[in-house]
Design goal:
The protein is α+β, with helices and mostly antiparallel strands. It folds into 2 domains: 188 residues, 2-Layer Sandwich (Fructose-1,6-Bisphosphatase, Chain A, domain 1), CATH 3.30.540; 138 residues, D-Maltodextrin-Binding Protein, domain 2. The protein is built from 7 helices and 17 strands. The protein has an 8-stranded mixed sheet, sandwiched between helices. It has a 5-stranded mixed sheet with strand order 12-11-13-17-15, with helices on both faces. The chain is globular and about 65 Å long. The chain binds 6-O-phosphono-alpha-D-fructofuranose (P6P).
Length: 342
């Protein structure tokens, strides 16, 4: 593949497709540069003062890792001054962060999980940054939290950066999915995949099996069918992968297919799921749908959900189209035999 930088890709997308207003191009380049800085901090590991707990809690009531706080600060500082944003929202912050009055206000809203998969940081397993871009609608002056409460189908762009054996930025602007690999020698993001497509079928599922006894019947049934393998109703054997970092699991699915599930479970029945809608499920859903996959709660399309709260959670079934459809059919069949659901 000809060596094309992220900047050139964005300029050509703007020139050929007119898809990227200047403020959105600036936003993507600033976030990509921030991800480079996060990658440098992540890669320091024990050599830098970046591992372990920050001895603070986030809005989710989770203990923050030092790198959670560092990554959040990197994204905030990188995006405040450019004039492309009106405000930001983060998993690590209770309320939205307005662009300070000393800087010009832009027309976009940026939401992010600055470092997803924090439990993997100290054990050197892939983690990542997830981001979602919305247009500022509503209030003509200033920004309020409810300006962020837009369904995922209104996203202008979405992406993630996975800090793994390679550092890879995955991006959609609503016209397919592209991947950029960080060339550490030059510090450039280099285009390494375009028009990414997820296989419609798969033999690989991704779920935290330790929660099995807490799942609802449709998920019990779907996973039970996969585990029954070639002699069961699916007539084929399945493999399982669970990294504990949504970014890593979704990147694998984009690369070779699969289905990722984080369903409702009875441990905290008042919560629809563990993952957050606005800055985990929605951006990943946009990317996966743009690559030919599906993203559902099991009952409805994730990107159709009209959010009620900034940090609300959602059940997630995402990946290869025909597998997501089968999970949805299990939900539609309710207590009937799922094999009749197919
Ligand atoms: P569990 C990471 O904390 C995360 O939000 C996702 O990245 C990941 O898929 C999931 O939680 C892992 O959850 O319950 O298996 O530790």
């Amino acid at each position: 593949m000809k060596r094309i930088s992220l900047t050139r890709y964005l300029v050509e997308q703007q020139r050929e497709h007119g898809r990227i207003p200047a403020q959105l191009r600036m936003l993507i380049e600033v976030v990509a540069r921030a991800c480079k800085h996060i990658a440098i901090a992540v890669n320091k590991g024990a050599l830098g003062d970046v591992l372990g707990s920050a001895h603070s809690e986030n809005v989710q009531g989770e203990i923050q890792k030092k790198l959670d706080v560092i990554s959040n600060e990197v994204l905030i500082e990188a995006n405040e001054w450019g004039g492309h944003l009106a405000a930001m929202a983060s998993e690590e912050m209770d309320s939205i962060h307005l662009v300070p009055n000393r800087y010009p206000q832009g027309e976009y809203l940026l939401l992010f999980d600055p470092l997803d998969g924090s439990s993997n940081i100290d054990v050197n397993v892939s983690i990542g940054t997830i981001f979602s871009v919305l247009r500022k609608v509503g209030h003509t002056h200033g920004v309020a939290e409810d300006d962020f409460l837009q369904p995922g189908k209104h996203q202008a762009a979405a992406g993630y950066c996975v800090y793994g054996p390679q550092t890879t930025l995955v991006l959609t602007l609503g016209d397919g999915v592209a991947m950029f690999t960080l060339d550490r020698e030059t510090g450039s993001w280099v285009l390494t995949a375009t028009d990414v497509r997820i296989p419609e079928d798969t033999q690989e599922f991704s779920i935290n099996m330790s929660n099995q006894r807490h799942w609802a019947a449709p998920v019990q049934r779907y996973i039970g069918e996969c585990l029954a393998g070639a002699t069961g109703p699916r007539g084929k054997d399945f493999n399982m992968r669970w990294v504990g970092s949504m970014v890593a699991d979704v990147h694998r699915i984009l690369s070779r297919g699969g289905v990722f599930l984080y369903p409702w479970d009875a441990r905290e029945p008042e919560k629809p799921g563990k993952l957050r809608l606005m800055y985990e499920a929605n951006p990943m859903s946009f990317i996966v749908e743009q690559a030919g996959g599906l993203a559902s709660t099991g009952v409805e399309r994730i990107m159709d959900i009209v959010p009620g709260k900034l940090h609300e959670r959602v059940a997630v079934v995402i990946g290869s189209k025909n597998e997501v459809l089968r999970v949805a059919a299990c939900h539609a069949a309710g207590d009937a035999d799922a094999s009749s659901a197919a």
